[in-house]
Design goal:
The chain has helices at 3-9, 23-34, 47-50, 63-101, 147-156, 168-180, 191-200, 207-223, 226-236, 246-254, 263-272, 285-301, 307-315, 329-344, 359-380, 425-433, 468-473, 477-487, 489-499, 520-531, 567-583, 640-652, 703-713; strands at 118-121, 127-131, 351-355, 384-391, 396-400, 442-445, 464-467, 542-547, 552-555, 597-602, 608-614, 618-625, 665-667, 669-671. The chain has 715 residues and is α+β, with helices and mostly antiparallel strands. A hairpin with a 4-residue loop joins strand 8 (542-547) and strand 9 (552-555). The longest helix has 39 residues, at 63-101. It is elongated and about 130 Å long.
């Protein structure tokens, strides 16, 4: 059969109705034609043969249906767990990304500079105080004993050297312990996370902060070595009482450097960071000791210290020491900070400031002042005092700015301007001597009036003609008034300023009686000019400033400002002020064997009381009064201030070889008591002499005065 015949006999399928055929008949025919013939159908399996066998092993005909259902449940559970996990991861990633975006770009992150510390040292190199926001200098791990950083690792982060900044194992352990324990909550933060919080974040407890803390911890671990991170931590963590860093804490609680702490002290410091206020050893020693015991046990368990060392530390626990610097040294430290900028400008890093302060003199001055006020302050109506003691070149050796620094930080030694009273008179007498007068010059002690101003002596009695030397020794107001009228107030002001008085002085006659206010430190410096041979004095407290690397930033040069008093007037002033100490208002404060000059001062209504005096070694001023300028109960300069001055100066000169004053003592010609002669005039008053007032003391007439009186009265 050829192809044409086959094609003719083959009936092609048609999808359109035939002639005379309706659409419905066509649809029926098409559906019948589309059905496969029985010969083309797939063979049917016997129904009975293909049914599941019902027997006891498979539990009947429903076994396959239940297995399919179980698998669907497990699959669904897995599916939804996976979906939820993916969405959770996406959400967590978004949350992390959001909070990461709140931080500076990672490539711009830097560890903030630690605020600089200023370590203020005494003249012997011992620490007086720390100043700055941290309370102590930066210290390296290599400087401290190895058990100190190990103590922090043991109690705060035992897996510190194993984790990558975040410790999942430690976090899980903390969670388990928190579930098991009924009280107390353990944290899962690593040392790195704690450092990140201290460096970059606030102390708020929020999820956002914890996320940022974790991000920053990872950055720290990638950027720094473990030891560097630990060193940063030790220098930044807060220990309470204003101490940031382990060095500041060791100084604060144990009065020693972190380089010298014992195992027990290291454990107490490590335990302190958990709760600085609650565990401070000076406030809660029992709690601090219990916490330290836990630290020691942890160190021993982890093999960081031996069992014997642990036993020793437990037997001899650490004890907080009485704080050094809670008292008067802080006045000196504050004065250092007041003037430091003038020498080194802005402070970029830790510095060490070597001062002129003598710790023994500082302690002695504080003790004597505080004890005197405690014994007599209430009775005599005086609540405050100040002491300034300096070498004759102006180097401050002791500076007490008040009775109790913890109660008042106002520095009366450097900032309080008070009337000096008769302690100002030496400038009046010096101006007169420089005009040609001498200690033997006679002036009349009698009532006087200058345009309505009528100065009176303290005793309201008068001596008549007296020498200037006698007038100064007994602090006669009429003579000082006559002298300032002769030389003019302007000339007295020039003289006082030349010697170092910087405060504004009123150009009037009452200036002679000390009515213009000055500070103790400037008055002391002015008297130092009498003690050093007439050389100008600029008070100073800083000798040297060094950086933390040992570089000298500032060193005081031994400079001389030149003489401001000529030799003859100087020797005359020394002789006159020495006479004050021998037979005048300062007699009971004199230092046997030494050439001493001094002057008392008492202001109107006993509002201020002073004593200022000097030897060739030291110049010291004592001021007493009340901050509200209220009157004391008849406290005069020759009374309690002179008593304090005498006790301090005698203690300060103990064991020293007496030395003459560089300017000598005048007696017609400059002369020293070390030449073998007697004092220039007079003798010490008898021990039982009663004085009419605190600024008066009995003295026999000087030879010149006696001769003048004999000639005057024909005697």
């Amino acid at each position: 059969m050829n192809d044409a015949t086959r094609r003719a006999g083959r009936r092609e399928p048609s999808f359109e109705p035939g002639r005379g055929e309706s659409r419905d008949d066509f649809d029926m025919r098409l559906s019948d034609e589309d059905r496969p013939s029985r010969s083309h159908r797939a063979p049917q399996r016997p129904e009975i043969r293909n049914q599941p066998r019902r027997d006891k092993r498979n539990g009947g005909g429903g076994g396959r249906r239940r297995g399919r259902k179980g698998r669907s449940f497990l699959g669904g559970l897995f599916y939804w767990t996976l979906v939820l996990g993916l969405w959770g991861a996406i959400g967590l990633g978004g949350l992390v990304a959001y909070h990461a975006a709140q931080l500076p770009p990672i490539n711009q992150l830097t560890v903030p500079k630690r605020p600089p510390n200023i370590a203020i040292l005494a003249a012997d190199g011992s620490l007086l105080a720390n100043r700055g926001e941290t309370g102590g200098r930066t210290i390296t791990i290599g400087e401290v004993p190895p058990y100190l950083p190990k103590a922090f690792v043991a109690i705060e982060d035992r897996r510190f050297y194993e984790h990558f900044g975040i410790d999942p194992i430690g976090l899980a352990r903390a969670m388990v312990n928190n579930l098991r324990r009924t009280g107390g909550v353990q944290g899962g933060s690593t040392l790195t996370q704690q450092l990140a919080k201290n460096l970059f974040l606030t102390q708020e407890r929020t999820a956002a902060r914890k996320i940022q803390e974790a991000i920053l911890a990872l950055w720290l671990e990638r950027t720094y070595s473990k030891d560097q991170i630990l060193e940063l931590y030790l220098n930044r963590v807060y220990f309470g009482s204003g101490a940031y860093g382990v060095e500041a804490a060791a100084q604060r609680y144990f009065n020693k450097s972190a380089r010298s702490v014992t195992i027990a002290e290291a454990a107490m410091l490590a335990g302190l960071v958990q709760a600085p206020s609650r565990l401070a050893p000076n406030r809660n020693p029992e709690a601090a000791e219990k916490r330290a015991q836990l630290v020691i046990a942890a160190m021993a368990d982890q093999g960081l210290i031996s069992q014997n060392a642990a036993k020793t530390a437990l037997v001899a626990p650490a004890e907080a020491s009485e704080r050094i610097g809670a008292g008067s040294v802080n006045y000196a430290a504050d004065y250092v900070m007041d003037v430091l900028d003038d020498f080194i400008g802005a402070i970029e890093g830790d510095v060490t400031v070597l001062t002129t302060i003598d710790t023994k003199l500082q302690s002695s001055a504080e003790t004597i002042l505080v004890e005197a006020l405690a014994a007599q302050g209430a009775k005599q109506g005086v609540s405050q005092g100040a002491v300034v003691s300096m070498a004759s070149d102006g180097g401050i050796r002791a500076l007490i700015g008040g009775r109790d620094y913890t109660k008042s930080q106002f520095n009366r030694a450097t900032a309080a301007k008070r009337q000096p009273g008769s302690a100002f008179k030496p400038f009046v007498y010096l101006a007169a001597l420089e005009k040609g007068l001498t200690p033997d010059t006679i002036r009349d002690d009698s009532p006087v009036s200058f345009k309505g101003w009528e100065p009176e002596n303290y005793s309201r009695s008068y001596r008549g003609p007296v020498t200037l030397q006698t007038a100064l020794a007994h602090s006669l107001n009429t003579i000082a008034a006559r002298l300032i009228n002769e030389v003019t107030p302007r000339e007295v002001i020039r003289t006082a300023q030349r010697l170092g008085i910087n405060s504004a002085l009123q150009s009037n006659l009452s200036l002679a009686l000390g009515t213009s206010e000055v500070t103790p430190v400037e008055l002391t410096a002015a008297y130092a000019t009498f003690a050093n041979g007439g050389q100008s004095v600029l008070p100073y407290v800083i000798r040297e400033v060094k950086s933390s690397a040992g570089k000298v930033i500032y060193a005081r040069a031994a400079t001389s400002f030149g003489p401001v008093i000529q030799p003859q007037p100087l020797s005359m002033m020394n002789a006159m002020l020495h006479q004050v100490m021998v037979s005048g208002t300062g007699a009971k404060a004199n230092i046997p064997g030494w050439e001493v000059g001094g002057k008392s001062g008492t202001t109107q209504d006993f509002r201020d009381a002073w004593f200022v005096g000097y030897t060739a070694r030291l110049v010291t001023s004592v001021w007493l009064g009340n901050d509200d300028n209220s009157a004391m109960k008849r406290v005069a300069g020759s009374g309690l201030p002179a008593e304090i001055w005498g006790k301090y100066m005698k203690a300060a000169h103990a064991g020293m070889q007496p030395a003459p004053l560089p300017g000598g003592l005048w007696q017609g010609t400059p002369r020293s008591i070390f030449d073998g002669g007697a004092p220039v005039a007079g003798t010490r008053p008898p021990a039982n002499t009663q004085t009419a007032d605190s600024d008066r003391a009995w003295v026999p007439p000087a030879p010149q005065e006696k001769n003048f009186l004999e000639r005057l009265f024909g005697g």
